Amino acid sequence: MAPQDHRITLLGKPGCHLCDDARAVIGRVAAELGVPWEERDITASEEDREKYWEMIPVTFVDGVQHDFWRVDENRLRAALGA
């Protein structure tokens, strides 16, 4: 699967400094590889809040949880086949 065939989702919240860091890494990698990505606000979903609150930011690749607390750029690239 080519990198651009993947999708990254960041689950975070406003005012979260770790989310800001994750956003920067994901944005850079996604732009370089042409991978679409989206961000979901954890405060908008009771289900997300209950399941992931202690782990934000949480990164998903193709809907599968990939990382939490921090985004490792090399691990993200590897998951995207880059």
Could you describe the 3D structure shown?
The chain has 82 residues and is an alpha+beta fold. The protein contains three helices and four strands. It has helices at 17-33, 46-52, 73-79; strands spanning 8-12, 37-41, 58-61, 64-68. A hairpin with a 2-residue loop joins strand 3 and strand 4. The longest helix is centred in the N-terminal third of the chain and has 17 residues, at 17-33. The termini are close together. The model has no long low-confidence stretch (mean pLDDT 95). Pfam families: Glrx-like (PF05768). InterPro entries: Glutaredoxin-like, Glutaredoxin-like_YDR286C, Thioredoxin-like_sf. This is Glutaredoxin.
List keywords for this structure.
82 residues; alpha+beta; 4 strands; Glutaredoxin; Glutaredoxin-like; Thioredoxin-like_sf; Glutaredoxin-like_YDR286C
Low-confidence parts lasting 5 or more residues at pLDDT below 50?
A: none
Strand segment count:
4
Order of neighbouring strands in the sheet with most strands? 2-1-3-4
CATH topology: Glutaredoxin
How does the overall form come out from the CA principal axes?
Answer: globular
Radius of gyration equals: 12 Å
The chain-level structural class is: alpha+beta
Question: Sheet bearing the most strands, described?
Answer: 4 strands, mixed
- Give the domain tally: 1
